[in-house]
Design a protein that fits this description.
Length: 193
């Protein structure tokens, strides 16, 4: 994530690097401090625990994703166009912020408390997808499905597909992934005329 080179940005980047390399459970605040080239006390000045730092990273990343997608959704777009924007932008985001993607998706299914926090944070983004699904249902363009289930399904399909490529160290071809996922999304929600 792009930030000015302050101590805080060094801590964030170091935390993203360490969490993505070692996983949440094996990462330590010492590892993060060493990577950021700051004293461990500097990290504890801003964050009470490794968990608090992790949640802050996830929250910031989800907000960046949501804000980026919202900025591309224009009122004059129809629901199909909006859903295509969501698919493209989520895929592009995960390609641009690969380490964050790995952290978000691999670590989100940790302990029960972490899962609950993760679901709260990701909810604002999934609500955006749900609103587009609801709009498409109301306009008659989409099948009448449960918008919450559809939103979770679309987010999950895109996220797991991206993670599969990133963890497999394969080339992350955003356009090819967009074309495949777009076809999958619309074969399921768009009414055939």
């Amino acid at each position: 994530m792009v930030m000015r080179k302050s101590k805080m940005s060094l801590i964030f980047q170091a935390a993203i690097d360490v969490f993505s390399e070692k996983g949440f459970d094996k990462a330590t605040m010492d590892d993060i401090a060493t990577r950021a080239n700051v004293a461990k006390g500097t990290i504890y000045y801003h964050f009470k625990s490794k968990e608090e730092l992790f949640f802050f990273l996830v929250e910031e990343g989800v907000e960046l994703l949501r804000d980026g997608v919202e900025a591309k959704l224009l009122p004059e777009m129809d629901p199909k166009e909006k859903l295509e924007v969501i698919v493209r932008e989520q895929i592009n985001f995960f390609g641009q912020y690969r380490d964050f993607c790995v952290i978000l998706l691999r670590e989100a299914w940790g302990g029960e408390e972490r899962q609950l926090e993760f679901r709260k944070m990701i909810r604002s983004y999934m609500y955006l997808i749900e609103n587009v699904i609801t709009e498409g249902i109301e306009s008659g363009d989409f099948h009448p499905v449960n918008p919450e289930n559809a939103g979770a399904g679309i987010f999950g399909m895109l996220a797991i597909s991206a993670l599969h490529i990133l963890l497999g160290k394969k080339q992350y071809d955003e356009e090819a992934l967009f074309l495949d996922m777009n076809r999958m999304v619309f074969a399921g929600v768009l009414k055939h005329t």
